[in-house]
Amino acid sequence: MPAPAAFLTASLRESPQGAAVTRILAAALEAVEPGRAVRRFTRVEGDRLLVAGRTYPLSAFGRIGLLAAGKAAVPMAAALVDLLGERLHSGLVITKQTARIPPFPFPILEGDHPLPGSRSLQAGERAVAFVSTHGPQDLLVCLISGGGSALMTAPVEGVPLADLQTLTESLLACGARIDEINTLRRRLDRVKGGGLAKLAGGATVVSLILSDVVGNPLEAIASGPTAPDPTSAAEARAVLSKYRLGHPIPASIQQALGAAPASLRPGDPLFERVQNVIVGSNLLAARAALGQAAVEGFHPYLVRIDLQGEARESAFELATLLRQAWQTGEPAARPACLIVGGETTVTLQGKGKGGRNTELALAAVTDLADFPGVMLVTLASDGEDGPTDAAGAVVTGATFRRAARLGLHPVEHLNRNDSYAFFAALGDLLKPGPTGTNVNDLNFLFTF
Predict the structure, then answer these.
(1) Domains within the chain, CATH numbers bracketed
(2) pTM surpassing 0.85?
(3) Which of 37, 288, 322, 371 could form a disulfide bond with 279, CB atoms 3.0-4.6 angstroms apart?
(4) What is residue 69's three-state secondary structure?
């Protein structure tokens, strides 16, 4: 997990409260450290594995396997290896970045993200082969985290990888929500929508899940590899209609959506042998941040954890709330730390560089111009905001004037979707590096 100093930016270094702010950000991520999340819900007592109220006698299983997939796969897997030790017979880990990973007892594969690529396809086929070696006498522990949808893919017959890439790219560009994107993915992929559980050959499946989706719907997190799919083919096609994507979507996708579904429906008897457990979430991170804020002398207040929609529209909402809080002391008196969790989207209009968190921050610059005693900090919990190496940005009442002195115009950068360049010039990009966890985004609204 990043140390508080890893969050420092130009504005945070200049602010008397900057160090406190960095400690609050660090506390949020520390609370959802993946290994800790696994241990919170899982323990071993003698020959028994205890998971969220259920007991599994380990000696009753012929083989015990581990499959981890997602941005947090490595630390989650490391925690389980530490718990089960030599009781684990086999394992496979699929993640985004494999650099600087210490020696591990099982293979670690690197997939592609945010677009599934050739490595994702190889990882998906390896996952299919690995899971298929299990049978009714075995226990398979799955460790699922955000990013798993792209990092591991096994397209249904007739859908080439290139067509999945076209679909994903179109959905990301038009501002579709992650749950909408995954509604389509579940019907186009053999490992999604309960696919991994089905491939496990009747094995008992325990799935520990770190949620990166608003509301924690099991079917949407990494497209629900061990969860039933409550959506229909009509709902999947409705996503394409909503964003008017009929024309650029390849024929293979259209045909697959009209065929028998690859996903499994709720009530399928297969899920009687599956336990799905949410071990970490946006709410947990927000609560930890609020606790640290109180220690730092702020009045903490959780506004909501279901923020969705266009980033620039959310920016207006948050800037309005922040000005109101400073002026009225509602919903919390100064100094205050208000937290809003969720995940916004961006409809691309230009060819600039940025992500949803830096775009939200950029859209708030004008609304907060010259307003005293306020700060907005946007943070992607995985440390990577879209296709960039930044996690978010910092905005204060002085940001507009500082930018103007450098000849930077917020609206012009916003029209180009060029938020990264704007905040890079100001030294106000958050760059803690990849955090190893992923539980949506957090927005911190400070009044001083």
Answers:
(1) 4-31+283-447 (3.40.1480.10), 34-280 (3.40.50.10180)
(2) yes
(3) 37
(4) strand
Instruction: Write out the H or E segment, with its range, that includes residue 95.
Output: strand 90-95
Q: Which residues contact 252 (CB under 8 A, 6 or more apart)?
A: 158, 159, 160, 163
Task: Say how far apart CA 99 and CA 97 lie, in whole Å.
Answer: 6
Looking at the chain, the number of H-run helices and the number of E-run strands are: 17, 15
**Cβ(280)–Cβ(32) below 8 Å:** yes
For residue 262, give the 3-state DSSP assignment.
coil
Token pair for 328: 């009225």
Sheet with 274-280: strands ordered across = 108-110, 90-95, 64-69, 139-145, 204-210, 274-280
pLDDT for 42-89, tens place per residue?
Answer: 999 999 999 999 999 999 999 999 999 999 999 999 999 999 999 999
In degrees and rounded to multiples of 5, residue 26 shows phi and psi of -65, -40
Strands 299-307 and 336-342: parallel
Q: What are phi and psi of 129, to 5 degrees?
A: -65, -40
Give the integer Cα–Cα distance in Å for 387 and 208: 27
